[in-house]
Write a structure and sequence with these properties.
This protein is an alpha+beta fold. The protein is built from three helices and five strands, in the order βββαβαβα. The two termini are 45 Å apart.
Length: 175
């Protein structure tokens, strides 16, 4: 996420250095440190929003994998009942058939073992695809998590530096 940062000279110099106020996405009159903190916090917030979307996608993929696994178990059980003859009729529950149809896998509640073996292969392909997508989403989530942590770290370091500078200035006044 890119931030909109503008600098404005305020007509004041300290030890020959022109002083500047910064504006970060509508937050006015910030010094450089405060501008960097604001930028870091906004970036961290953007990463958290992106992480929420990816987390939701991961939950949906996990649910789909679980349901496909249940469908695979039902089809495998039906095949196991009549595995001796590929043309024998066997059956799965209507619930399993409806669940698989939701994911684009057509299956009859009563069919031949040979056709169920084709369905079984289609379920495995669908599960492999979802598993690959799930890994990609998890990798993206890890990237956003790392970016968020870096943004918070930057903001934290800038706040610490500002606090240390003020503390040092106060201690120098007294002594």
């Amino acid at each position: 996420m890119s931030e909109f940062i503008t600098a404005k000279e305020i007509g004041l110099t300290v030890f020959g250095q022109a002083q500047v106020d910064y504006t970060v996405n509508g937050y006015d009159n910030l010094d450089f440190g405060a501008a960097m903190v604001q930028t870091g916090l906004r970036r961290a917030s953007a990463m958290e929003n992106a992480m929420a979307d990816i987390s939701q996608a991961i939950r949906i993929r996990q649910q789909k994998l679980e349901e496909l696994g249940e469908g695979l178990a039902a089809v495998s059980e039906a095949i196991g009942k009549n595995c001796s003859n590929i043309l024998n009729k066997t059956s799965i529950s209507g619930t399993a058939a409806r669940m698989l149809k939701r994911y684009g896998i057509s299956v009859n509640t009563s069919d031949t073992v040979g056709n169920y073996q084709k369905v079984q292969s289609n379920i495995r392909l669908a599960m492999d695809k979802e598993s690959t997508s799930l890994k990609e989403d998890a990798s993206a989530l890890q990237t956003y998590l790392s970016r968020r942590d870096n943004a918070y770290s930057l903001a934290s370091k800038m706040m610490k530096k500002a606090t240390d500078t003020v503390s040092k200035g106060i201690s120098n006044i007294g002594g």
